[in-house]
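Note to self: user wants both folds in one dump. Writing first protein now.
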Amino acid sequence: MANKNERKPQKMTLKGYYLNLPDASHPKTEFITRIMSECGVSFTTARNWVMGVTRPDKEENVRKLSEMTGINADDLWKS
């Protein structure tokens, strides 16, 4: 007698498989992407700001970064 609780294999497409994968979380990339969106800059520019390679020319972007992080604008790039 067959077990009534046995699952029958479900047919799935590659797209269905992909859509059922859990959403990954990459907080560092998501933060850079948020900077890009809110400041209107490229990924490279946003990453350079975060890594301290360069700083924003526009004070508006410094203010946005301060608001996003809660870090005082004067402290954003202190060593």
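First done. Writing the second protein, which came from a different request thread.
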Amino acid sequence: MQIGELAQRAKVSHRTIHYYERLGLLHPAEREGAGYRYYDDMALKRLEKIAALKRLGLNLEEIAAVLDLYFVDATGIRGKEKVLEILQAQLAKADTQLHELTAFRRDLASNIARMEQLIAQAQRD
């Protein structure tokens, strides 16, 4: 299929397909003499897997690290294990950020209360 049909079937733009090619996530199956790209069903499956991984919250760099695992292992277990590792790391990072943000919020609320006291005191004096 040509790029237009692939884009339509995968519900992505031509530009997205070209971008994924530049990143090495997708490869045309063959090129015609005039330079037209032709894609096979594997390209569509890769685009569908990229979309699914994006929905899980992976960025394109992370997707590049796991995408091929889904296509060299028919069970998909290797890819799923790698995605699980990435998601667990993201959760740990989010937990750390949440803890830091909670501490920052507590300090900010304390500083606001202190400033309100200083203003009230200055108004009384």
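Dump finished. Worth passing along: The first strand starts at residue 30 and ends at 31.
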